[in-house]
Automatic annotation (TrEMBL):
Domain DUF7586: 347-427
PANTHER family assigned: D-ALANYL-D-ALANINE CARBOXYPEPTIDASE, D-ALANYL-D-ALANINE-CARBOXYPEPTIDASE/ENDOPEPTIDASE AMPH
Protein known as: CubicO group peptidase, beta-lactamase class C family
Residues covered by the Beta-lactamase-related domain: 13-319
Pfam families given in the database record: Beta-lactamase (PF00144), DUF7586 (PF24491)
Gene3D superfamilies: DD-peptidase/beta-lactamase superfamily
InterPro entries with a match to the protein in the record: AmpC-like, Beta-lactam-related, Beta-lactam/transpept-like, DUF7586
Amino acid sequence: MSTVDTQLLTVVARAQRELRIPSLTAAVLARGTVAAVAAVGSVDGRRGGEPVGPDTQYRIGSISKTFTAALVMRLRDDGLLSVDDPLERHVPGTPIGAVTLGQLLSHTSGLRAETDAPWWERTAGLPFAELVPQLQQVVPAGSRLHYSNLGFAVLAEVVARHRGVGWDESVRTELLEPLGLTRTTPRPSGTHAQGVARHPHADLLLAEPEHHHGAMAAAGQLWSTVGDLAVWGEFLRSGHPGVLAPETLAEMRRPRGVHDLPGAAWLGAHGLGLELGNVDGRRRVGHGGSMPGFLAVLRVDVESGRGLAVMANTTSGLSPALVAQLWEVVEQQPAERVEPWYAEGDAGLLDVTGTWYWGPAPYRLDALPDGGLDLAPAGLGRAARFVPAGPDRWIGTSGYFDGEELVVVRDAGRPAHLDLASFRFTRTPYDPSADVPGGVDGWR
């Protein structure tokens, strides 16, 4: 057993006992694989019950929202909608027709968090038509983050009207089958943990109900295993051919609604259907999940591909401290193999590289192996990366110049200056031979 396996089992075993969790399964993830796994307890939380293991299904709750978001973005990439479209364009006749699909995905629609009574997570689901009168805004759209389970029922209806099938079927055919997620299902299948609540003052368990939640299924219906979550976490990081492109996942990972705590830097945010973490300058992507009888966490470091999947069959009991402790084990993985460097650059970009000046401020422009460019200031300034968009044209993909066009203007075939947004970059500070807006009076 490796050091990581031993550490993981120690943390999981202690947490399962000290927090009185009927069963607890955690896995260290590495680029779509399970690098280490520990499972403690039984499927029903009782002595003598069937032990849980890596292939035991748990309900993953709101991690299901990431699947719903992927379906919406597939529609977008198919040209059937835009995330800036108002809901009315796709589901007419609701009280929130002006809300955009992007606002629903990022929990910035202002839509109420939950349905009317009864408690939807503990009862059989309703059809979408019966939810429509409940679509009420409680804060102005776009004003701030306000988490809404109800919003994902709306998004599932968007998917159903375009695809002509229900949410379950779209998830199966468009996501589960292409990615090989054979142990992810809308209802429990095979070996699965039983959802229970633990009495806070006694070692007693209460069975929690399990239903299909109809229109609300898109907010928390799915069951899965740590192995399937490993594959799904890597998909959220890097995409998959035929499902969603890496560029689409990168768009989904951009923060749109931020958990804003006064006096503190943001640590969490929502992109398009994804939860984002900002820990010591590193981004993590995934989601948490809770349903009666179950808790789950999926987190993947976007840069390294290392991650964590945690699943428990208890209504309450996991804590941020435990997740942080488990992440410390993630960081104990052996160093990844460093791929060797090879000279694979494009000599055709060489005359564009080097030092350029924005006014008197020097910037370095480097060519990237994929034909892109990296712009970096020598001191304070606006760094950005760019991807090719045509001869002598690039489009920004990050920073201040995200989405802006960089154009190389040539004179007698040689780069004379760069136009970036309205700024002009020259080879020397305020180059008098370049057409600098406002003119150059000369240094003195």
